[in-house]
Design a protein that fits this description.
Mean pLDDT: 89
Radius of gyration: 32 Å
Number of helices: 5
Order of helices and strands: HHHHH
Number of strands: 0
Length: 205
């Protein structure tokens, strides 16, 4: 980005040295537009960098949460299997004494408590994992917006450079269109707007 801005400045200086009021006026507009676009893009890049860090953290938290969810599920399955096995044993060979019966009932109750505990923990961890996934999707949405803003602004600055070199006014308007689109997408990312051209996001992804 800085290389493109330097190219614009060099082209403007050469054109100004060549003389001409019309050229100076065009180059002044180009220089101002390029500087504004580059500044706005730099701000977008800083914010996008923070968003990418948040995405990485959300992704890591999601992986950890789903791993914990699987571990809770494994514990739940073990407890359910042990309880079912004990129930089958009691049914096939009923305890011979009241003490043995009481011990079997106590053990079954403990398994039931464990199962309820694991089910509650599993549901809680699932909710946390889904929350982390939602955070990642939300951040990725804004990351796409800043990516589109960066791409459009880069094209705009390149066109500003070509405009300064060739002194073709139509190129200035094309560059302004790309710059405007970059500003719109960047503003959407800053203010959390729902503007998100999916085809561009897929192309840049």
């Amino acid at each position: 980005m800085s290389d493109l801005a330097d190219t614009v400045n060099e082209a403007v200086e050469r054109a100004q040295e060549a003389g001409g009021i019309g050229r100076f006026s065009l180059n002044t507009v180009v220089a101002v537009c390029a500087a504004l676009t580059a500044t706005f893009t730099a701000l977008c890049n800083v914010t996008d960098g923070n968003i990418c860090q948040g995405m990485q953290q959300a992704q890591a938290s999601t992986v950890d949460a789903w791993s914990n969810y699987q571990a809770k599920g494994a514990k739940l399955n073990i407890a359910e299997a042990a309880r079912d096995q004990l129930k089958l044993q009691v049914r096939l060979a009923p305890p011979a004494t009241p003490e043995a019966r009481a011990l079997a009932d106590k053990t079954l109750a403990e398994y039931d408590d464990k199962i309820q505990h694991y089910e509650a923990e599993k549901a809680q961890v699932k909710s946390q994992a889904e929350g982390f996934e939602a955070d990642y999707d939300r951040l990725n949405f804004h990351d796409d917006q800043f990516d589109m803003a960066d791409a459009a602004s880069s094209i705009a600055i390149a066109l500003f450079a070509v405009t300064a070199l060739t002194q073709k006014r139509p190129l200035l308007f094309v560059a302004l269109v790309f710059a405007a689109f970059g500003f719109v997408m960047g503003a959407a990312g800053f203010f959390g707007l729902g503007l998100h051209p999916d085809f561009l996001a897929r192309a840049l992804g």
